[in-house]
C-alpha cells in the first residue's frame, strides 16, 4: 500500500487581493485604491452599513443595514402621514411624549451614522492612499459627517428646544373641544410697567377659528369698555351679578388686576385667575364661549418681533413714540420718535410702539394697529422663517408668552393656522370704526351679540333673480327721491374722521415734532386721525 502526497493547487495560493481588491486593497493599484475609497464613502452616505457588507465587518454591516431600512421605513411613513393626515403628523412634533421619542431617535441616528463613517474610514485605510488623496478623502469625510450626522443632531437640538418651550408656555390637560364648530381664544397683551399696580391687558382680542375650514376672525374689545357682563355659570356672577359696572374704575382692563388681587378665590384651581376672569368677561361681552387664552407680555413683545427678524407692514399714517410723562399732569414730553407711513419693516421696539401708541387718536386706532401687527406676524410665520430663526423664537416665546392651551393639541391648532392662511381674515372692533365712540361706555350687548354672529355666520348669499325679457318687464315706477343722509348715531355707523386742514404744509416728521413741541394738540389730532389704517406689508 503506497501513499502519495496531495497536490496543491496553485490557484489556491494566489493572494486574495488579486481577486477582491475591494476587500483586500493591499496589492491594488493607487487609482484602484482611490476609486475604492470614494465608493465606500458613497455607500455609507446613501445606505449606511453597505460599505461594511462589501469591504468590512459584515456583522456590523448587517446591523447597520437593518437600522437604515427601519429609518427609511419611518421616514416614508412620516411622509405618508403628513400627506394623509397633517394634523396627526404635527402632533408628533408638538406632543411632549412623541416629540421626546423623535428627539431620541434623531440623536441615535446622528451618532450611528457618525460611527459608520468613522468605521468606513478605517476600512479605507488612508495609509494605502496617495498623500494627496488622503487629504481629499479625509476632507470629504468631514463634510459628509457634518451634512448627515450634524444635520440630524441639529434637528434633534431644535426639536428639543421647541419641546422645552412648549412645556414652559403651554399647559397639560384635556383637549379643548370646539363650541358650535369654532375654537375661540382670548389673546391679550399684558402690560406690567414699573409705574403700574399689577398687570393690565391693554390689548384684548378674541380670535375665533372655524374648526374645519380654518376661517378666522378677530374681534377687538377696547380696554376702556365698561359694564362687562358675565353668564350665570361664571364664578364672577357672585361678585358682579349686574356686570362690572362701577364706571371709570371698572373698565375691562382693570378686571385682570382686580380678580388677581381681590377675587382669586373665585378660581381656586386656575394657574392665572386674572386670565380666567378675562375669558369670562370676553365671552359675556361677545356672546361666545371662550375656551383658552394666550397672554403676551408687551414688555417682552419686542424680543419676539426681533426674533422673527422684524415685522413688515404698510402703515397708513404717522404714529408717535410717546415721550415721558410730565410729573403731576396727564401730559407727555414731545415724542421720542415717529413711525412714518408706507411699507416698512419695524424692529421690535418700533413694533411695540406701533401697537401701543394712543396719543392724539382714539383708543380704536390702536386696536386696528394691534390687529394689523398680529396679522403681519402670522403672515411671516412661514416654515422657512420659523426653521431658520427657531431657536431665537422659542427662547423669546418662553419669556413673553403664557397660555392655558393644551400642549398635546398644538398640532391641531397649527394645522388650523395653516388652513387659515388660505382665507381672508375677518375683523370687527367693538368701537370705531364699527361702533360709535361712546359705545364702549354704554354698550348694548344685544347689538354686539348680533354683530358677532353675523361676522362668524354670515347668511348664505341668495341667488340673483333671473332677468326678464325687455318685452315682458312692467314699467318701472319713478325712483323715490333720495333721503337725506342721517348722522352717525346707530351702532353700525362709524364717526367721521376729522378733516385735515387744507392749508397745512407738507406733513413731515420735523413738522409733526414741532407741533408737539408747540402743544398744538388739535392739529395733531386732525393729522393723525388715519393712523389706525394698516395692512401687512
UniProtKB/TrEMBL annotation:
Ranges annotated as biased composition (Low complexity): 459-506
Chain ranges of the Cell envelope-related transcriptional attenuator domain: 200-381
Annotated region (Disordered), positions in chain: 1-20, 459-507
Record key words, sorted: Membrane, Transmembrane, Transmembrane helix
Biased composition (Polar residues): 1-14
Residues spanning the membrane: 37-56, 63-85, 97-124, 136-159
UniProt-listed PANTHER family: POLYISOPRENYL-TEICHOIC ACID--PEPTIDOGLYCAN TEICHOIC ACID TRANSFERASE TAGU
Similarity remark: Belongs to the LytR/CpsA/Psr (LCP) family.
Name under which the protein is recorded: Transcriptional regulator
Organism the protein comes from: Arthrobacter livingstonensis
